[in-house]
Amino acid sequence: MRVAVIGGGVIGVSTAYYLAEAGHEVMVVERYGNVAQEASFGNVDLMGPNSTLRQWTVPGLPYRALSMLFRQESPVAFSARFEPAMWSWIRRWISECRLQRFKENQQRLKMLADYSAQQMSQLIQTHEMDFQQHKAAMVMFRTAKDLQLARLTMQLLGESGTNHELLDQEAARQMEPALSTEVEFHSGLYLPDDQAGNSPLFVRQMKILCQNLGVEFHFNNHVQSIRNEQNKVELQIDGRSVMVDALVIAAGSETAKLMHGLGTHLPLYPVKVYSASAAVQEYEMAPKVSLFDDTYQVSITRLGKRIRIAGCAEMGSSSVNLHQKAVNTLVKVADDWFPNAANYRHANFWSGTAGMLPEGIPLLGATKHPNIFINAGHGAGAWALAAGSGKLLADIISQREPEIDMQGLTLARYDNKH
Ligand SMILES: Cc1cc2nc3c(=O)[nH]c(=O)nc-3n(C[C@H](O)[C@H](O)[C@H](O)COP(=O)(O)OP(=O)(O)OC[C@H]3O[C@@H](n4cnc5c(N)ncnc54)[C@H](O)[C@@H]3O)c2cc1C
Questions:
Q1: In the CATH hierarchy, which top-level class contains the domain 2-39+201-267+360-414?
Q2: What is the pTM of this model?
C-alpha cells in the first residue's frame, strides 16, 4: 500500500519507519527542509518511560501554575491574545487534573510508555544506535508542599514497579555532586532507569533507517488540504495533487487544523514551549544526572558539550518572539542548580509549538475516514511514546492486531463524536 505521513517530527518519522518495515511504500511530507524542525527540535531530550510522568495533567498543577503566573519566573506565560479556544482548553485541562481522571489517564499512558520503551530498546539494539543517550534522572522538590503534590505520582510509580528513590538533601547531593551549594531544596526523586539523549539526532538517524527501507522524504512540501476519494486519499501539496492509498496525520500542533478540514474538531491546542542550549564552561560543575525542577517544570540535561534547558509553556501566542518571562525562567532555574557550569545568558534560546491535548494522552489510529489515520497529541512525553505509537499505527494500517489494548488511545474517547 502507498502510505503518506504528514510530519517529519519524532512521531511522523517513527511511524514511517514501522510502516516501511511492515512492507508499505511510504512517503513523508514535511513543510520544512529537514526532519525534527518543530517541537522535536527543542525537546529537552528525556526519553525514558518516566518522562511521561512529568505530564501536565496532574492534580494540583493548575493551581500551582496559576498562583505563579504574575511572577517574573513561572512555569506558564500568557500572551495578550485571550482567545476562547484557549479558555476552553484550560477548562478541560483543569477537569482532567481531577484525581480519578488523573489515575485513569496515567494507567493508559504508562501502558503505552512501557510498550514504547520495549520498541525503543529493540530499535537501539538492532541498529546499534548512538544518539548520546545516558541514564538516570532526578526530580527536584524545592519545598515540602511540592513533594506533597508529587505523592500521587510516586504512589503510581510504586504500583507499577518503576525503580525510584526519594532522597533527602544530603543523599541528593551525593547523587549529583554538581548541585549548587547555595540552592535550597527539600528533596529529590531519583529515577535510575530514566534516560535522556539527543532527540533531533535520534530523528535524523531514524530518517536514515527509513531511507534504507525505501521511504521517500518530500521536504519543503506543505500539505494544504486532504480529501477522501473513494478508496484513496488526495493531498493538495503546494498546488499539486498527490493520491495515496492511506494517510497518517502526524503534524504535531498543526494536526487540529488538518483534522478540522476533514470535519473533526479536536481539543488539541498549540502551546509554545521554550528551550535553551548553553556551551559547558566548567565540566565538573555540569549536571551528570538529568534534572527536572518540579516547581518551575523545567528540565536540565547535559548533552556532550552543551547543557539543554527546557520548559515554560506560553499560551495564546502565535508569534515567533521570545517571551521574556520564559527566558527569565530558564535562566533562573539553570542558574539556581548549576550556576558555574555555563553562562546561561549567552545561551541559544529557541521556541517551538507542541500540540497539547487536555488529558495528556495521545490520539492513535482510525478517523471517521476509512483510509485516514492520526498519530498526534503526545504532549510533554512524546519521545518516550514515539516508537510504540509508530508501531501501533503500522499494525493498525497493516490490519494486524495491536500488541496493547487501544482503549482510551483512539478518537473513540470523544464519544464517537469525531
Ligand atoms: C521545549 C520542549 C521540550 C520537550 N521536552 C520533552 C522531553 O523531554 N521528552 C519528551 O518525550 N517530549 C518532550 N517534548 C515534547 C516533544 O518534543 C513533542 O511533543 C514532540 O516532539 C512532538 O513530536 P511530533 O512529531 O508530534 O511533532 P513535531 O516535532 O512538531 O512534528 C510535526 C511536523 O509536522 C510538520 N507539519 C505540520 N503541518 C504540516 C503540513 N500541513 N504539511 C507538511 N508538514 C507539516 C511540521 O513542520 C513538523 O515538522 C518537549 C517539547 C518541547 C517544545
A1: alpha beta
A2: 0.92
Helix H or strand E encompassing 203:
helix 199-212
50 contacts 385 by C-beta, under 8 angstroms: no
Say what angle helices 99-127 and 84-96 make with each other, to 10 degrees. 90
Percent over 70 (pLDDT), the chain: 96
What is the C-alpha to C-alpha distance for residues 206 and 120, in angstroms, rounded to an integer?
Answer: 11
Q: Is the dihedral of CA 96, 102, 103, 104 positive or negative?
A: positive
Residue 54: pLDDT band with limits 50, 70, 90: low
**φ, ψ (nearest 5 deg) of residue 197:** -170, -175
Domain ranges of the chain: 2-39+201-267+360-414, 60-83+92-97+134-195+269-356
Smallest CA-to-CA distance from 377 within 3, 27, 109, 97 is with 109
Q: How far apart (Å, rounded) are the C-alpha atoms in residues 325 and 76? A: 9
pLDDT recorded at residue 180: 97
Collapsed DSSP state (helix, strand, coil) of residue 54: helix
Task: Compute, in angstroms, the gap from residue 10 CA to the centroid of ligand 1.
Answer: 7
Contact predicate 178/287, CB 8 Å: yes
- Taking a C-beta distance cutoff of 8 angstroms, is the pair 32, 219 a contact? yes
- Nearest atom within ligand 1 for CA of residue 7: 34
60-83+92-97+134-195+269-356, which class in CATH?
alpha beta
Of all helices (H) and strands (E), which one includes residue 92? helix 84-96
Structure confidence by residue, pLDDT tens digits, 100-127? 898 888 888 888 988 998 999 999 999 9
pLDDT greater at residue 127 or residue 58: 127
Q: Which residues pair with 167 in a beta bridge?
A: 188
Which of 6, 38, 194, 224 best tests ligand 1's pocket when mutated (most atoms within 8 Å of CB)?
38
Among 43, 44, 210, 348, residue to substitute to test ligand 1 (most atoms within 8 Å of Cβ): 43
